[in-house]
Amino acid sequence: MRKCEISGNEFEYSEKEQNFIFGLSFKFAGKSFSVPLINLSPDERLRERTAYRNEQYMYRNFSAVDNKPLVSIFSVDKGLKIYPQSFWFSDNWAPLSYGVAFDASRSFFEQFADLSKTVPKANMVTVDNDNCEYTTGTGYCKNCYLIDSSEYCEDCYYGKLLQTCKNIVDSSYVYDSEICYQCFNVRKCYNLKYVYNSQNCSDCSFSDNLTGCRNCYLCTNLNNQEYCFLNQKMDKESYEQKIKEFEGYDGISRALEMFSDLRKKRIYKYANVINSQNCTGDFIRNSKECFNCYDMTDGQDCEYVQVGVGCKDVYDSSNMYVNPEIAYQVLGVIETFNVHFCLYVFNSSDLLYCENMYSCKNCFGCSGLRNKQYCILNKQYTKEEYEEIVVRIIEHMENLGEWGRFFPSKYSPFAYNETLASAYFPLTREEAFQRGYKWKDDIDEVKENPDSISAENLPKTIQEVSDDILRKTILCEKTKRAYRIIEQELKFYRQHNLPLPRRHPDVRHLERMTLRNQRRLFERNCMNCQKSIMTTYSSDRPETIYCEECYLKEIF
Q1: How far apart are alpha carbons 162 and 177 in whole angstroms?
Q2: Are 280 and 250 found together in one domain?
Q3: End of a domain among 330, 353, 371?
Q4: Residue 550 lies in domain
Q5: Quick one: 220 and 344 in the same domain?
Q6: Is residue 359 part of a domain?
Q7: Please, what sign has the CA dihedral across residues 375, 380, 384, 388?
Q8: Strand 293-297 versus strand 325-352 pairing type
Q9: Domains in the chain: how many in total?
Q10: Do 224 and 143 share a structural domain?
Q11: Rounded to a whole number, what is the distance in angstroms from the first to the last CA of the chain?
Q12: Is 327 in contact with 314 (CB distance < 8 Å)?
């Protein structure tokens, strides 16, 4: 048992994770280096990594190329040199020109932090998008707005973790679906409103945990049903007449109250683990031997991974996409092999302590390189020189206790409340300062103006809304923060007879995030057979939690 040096909580490394870490061996110039076990709990390791990821807030900044305004995940006060993505990926600048020699009189982390501040940053982290200026962490998307961590999407607005979707609005964790509004964790669905944890459904609203259903309203735990209201079968005409009672803002508000009561009473499976073998965590699909993993698809032999697709032998890492293999303490990659202690790496291999790297291999402590090999702190070396200097750096890091640790969060360019860490581990402003984090008081870009309208004064039906709303700012009914309606969004509401939202997009996002539990496991008993289970529902939660066997018997 170990004691976390930050939280003071006791924790232990599993045998599986110890075997992986001890199996990591890096050989340079004939000398091998192993990785030590550090005294940071899994939660603090996760916090440290995700304090480097802003995937929600965007700011008006200026291009260091021509001083023209651009949208960026970095605000002006960061003091960073920002390039438009098109320029950043061009040959019009030389990342190696920022290279520095390793200085054995200084901490490696300090030297890397200085390099990171100096090397220009792309304004967004995206790949091959079309007309998606206001998105980040996205790839291969078209005509999307304020979505993040998403790929292969079209005409989607306000969402997180959307994969191969079209016409999705105010939704999160949606896969292979079309026309969804205020949905959470749905897959292969069509035309849903306020539906959670469901798959292969169409034309359903205000429902939770449906499979293969059509035209169901205010229902839970149903399979292959049609025309059901409050889990009761109805004829088509009666059903359609019934749901007309819930149109407009007042009707939707009433439906949401009823839906909340239904969800409190339904039976919950201990975890969302589907078609997987020997896995623990939540939202795991088609995986095996994955422990303490969350939002994992097609994973194998992983532990403490948050959001992964096709991962193999990945530990203590987050936002790992498209078949990353052999990774430890990494954040944000696509198609990597043998990459460790890194940030935002794409199509690369054999990297240590690097960030923003594309198609590189055999690099150490580099930032912003493309198609390079044998570089250290952005300086080019021969293979022999590279290995000799890496030996010196690792020995230096070992002496200072840096080797085997992720980049300290104090060097993150972001304030704590801008980052994914804040979503996983919320802190107040005062708590963040006590822990040594920065805090950004003015996050909003949209400001109140003379044409602002209080959300409480919005029309109750979309038919009453004119195009003038596009020129106004709306003051959130909960926080009074200002936000706008965009033209594409208004068109969606009109097409699907939805009233205007009365809460700021950030509030709507946070409310969806409360639909999922903490990424933490608790041992408790099935409330039916008393079998011991590992679940994200702590024993003091009010929900009825069943093991898989009891759940299947009850639901199917």
Answers
A1: 9
A2: no
A3: 371
A4: 522-555
A5: no
A6: yes
A7: negative
A8: unpaired
A9: 4
A10: yes
A11: 42
A12: yes
At which of 213, 234, 269 does a domain end? 269
pLDDT per residue of the chain (556 residues) written in tens, 0 to 9: 999 999 999 999 999 999 999 999 999 999 999 999 999 999 999 999 999 999 989 999 999 999 999 999 999 999 999 999 999 999 999 999 999 999 999 999 999 999 999 999 999 988 889 999 999 989 899 999 999 999 999 999 999 999 999 999 999 999 999 999 999 999 999 999 999 999 999 999 999 999 999 999 999 999 999 999 999 999 999 999 999 999 999 999 999 999 999 999 999 999 999 999 999 999 999 999 999 999 999 999 999 999 999 999 999 999 998 899 999 999 999 999 999 999 999 999 999 999 999 999 999 999 999 999 999 999 999 999 999 999 999 999 999 999 999 999 999 999 999 999 998 999 999 999 999 999 999 887 777 777 799 999 999 999 999 999 999 999 999 999 999 999 999 999 999 999 999 999 999 999 999 898 989 999 999 999 999 999 999 999 999 999 999 999 988 7
Based on the domain organization, do 279 and 347 belong to the same domain?
yes
Which residue is it, tokens 């469901």? 198
H or E segment to which residue 87 belongs: helix 85-88
